[in-house]
Amino acid sequence: MSAAIPPSVLAGIKETLGAAVVGGILATTIYGITVLQTYTYFRRYPNDSTGLKTLASTPSLVEFARTELGLLQVGVLFILDTVTTVSIADGLYGYMVTDFGRPDQLSVTPISLAVEEGVTVVIATLCQLFFAHRLWVFSKHNKFLTFAIVALALGGLGPGIAITIHLFVNKEIFTLGSDYIRILSGFANGLAAVCDIVIAAGLCWYLQTGRTGYKRTDNIVDKLIVYAINRGVLTTACQTAHMITAVAFPGHFYFIPFAFCLGKFYCNTVLATLNVRQSLRQNDVVDTALEAGSRILGSTTRASDSAGDESLATIEFAKLRSRDQDHMTTTLDGKM
């Protein structure tokens, strides 16, 4: 018969499993949203460049040198998120089925969870570099801003990889509460959170300065600013919560749900950024048609007896719509 588990160890195991189960449920739910967003992307934008799609299958790497290495792509990103989901499921299965009734194994970190940690760090970095590339384009090659984002993203990547290596080398799960891991987590999550704040601030600034004075285009800019803020709040909040729970509560595992969900939040922020383009275009077309139609209606009411005026009204509508569509397309394709 196996030896009885000491109460103190049993309490730690229960806490670990409880946090892992909650995190697994949340992560799987968010993964369902990732699947839907990826499907929507490929259905909605079949004509996007292959480079961009191979980011929403990965997101766009920094295109500074304008080479083929400049694009992260939508298939690779989806595949990486799938890997983290499978890793979480495998880790939970190992704890609750394979190693059930084996106390000596319950304190060992499954390899799959080490894989999940490493892939999540990579996903976060790729998504941050995608937005760095977007800002590089929006800002007309602002080297200082882009370099700051890239430096922060890679600065968070280093400690994250170090934590992953630790999980592979040191199998004891309770070492995650050590000072070494707390310091690494503080740097990894802290730098990533600052990076997300800089990205959100940069997007808002350059979107704001990109106003044209046309009501419909400015409305689109307002919506894009809201999306940028929401994106920054989501990932920054998760990174901050992960950092606080890992650093302030050593020996506990409150950080696990945030760790499991983090990569999926990043995936969905990139996919949402790509998928929102069509809905913004459709809304703008409706607004343009309504406003132009109102102008034409007023024109024809005042000049109902003149066929020439009706023709001019039709021409005015065509010009107005063309003008607004040009501004709208420039905004969406340049900003998204």
From TrEMBL:
It comes from the Eukaryota. Keywords: Membrane, Transmembrane, Transmembrane helix. The chain crosses the membrane at residues 16-36, 69-89, 109-132, 144-168, 180-207. Residues 192-279 form the DUF6534 domain. PANTHER family: CHROMOSOME 1, WHOLE GENOME SHOTGUN SEQUENCE, DUF6534 DOMAIN-CONTAINING PROTEIN. This is DUF6534 domain-containing protein.
